[in-house]
Amino acid sequence: MNFAREGLLFIAIAALVAAGAFAFAVSRRSWGLWLAAFVLLLLALWVAYFFRDPERVGERGPSLVVAPADGKLIMITEVDEPAFIKGRAIRLSIFMNVFNVHVNRYPVDGVVSYIHYNKGKFFNASAEKSSLENEQMSVGIDTLPPDSGRTARVGAVHRVLVRQIAGLIARRIVTYSKLGERVRQGDRMGIIRFGSRVDLFLPVGSTIRAKVGDVTTAGVTVLGELSH
To answer: Can you give the residue range of the structural domain that contains 36?
Structure first.
């Protein structure tokens, strides 16, 4: 199994603590210490499980939009998005619990043309106000038609925004994106530690192929299609 590089230190620390607890339990011959060591072992296994980073293969296409995160689709609504899309947009909100894979992926092919970090609060990520007030990283992507260079034809570009939002427990957002970088649909975009939310903003007129309550798989689940 692959693990996210941001989690390797946490995995190593948890494993060392569990190993030390077992060594201490052996030296003291205490059932209480054995039980504590077993609990720490379970915790170490959970830390490794949390930072798993499986390969993802799914349907691809220039008009398709795939899920940027594992989790549950908790909201689909039309909102104003003044920062990047600069107008009305369809927002799809995916809530990730502590058992989901937390590696995020690009929903479309394109060029990263907007990156903005907002240092905010840490409300419950499932709450509506978290989309505006929580700590977050926004990545805007200009889509490009197939076989185009770094510049798309006039009228061929769609603007898609992905917003990583820290939650009540999550305190660290990692984003790999760089301005001007050409990105591919389904590739790794970043990670959020320990429970969080990802909002996806699509242009009005996009066809939504998912519904509230759906369970999503990053890089696999098709959420919608961009208009032609």
So the answer is: 5-50
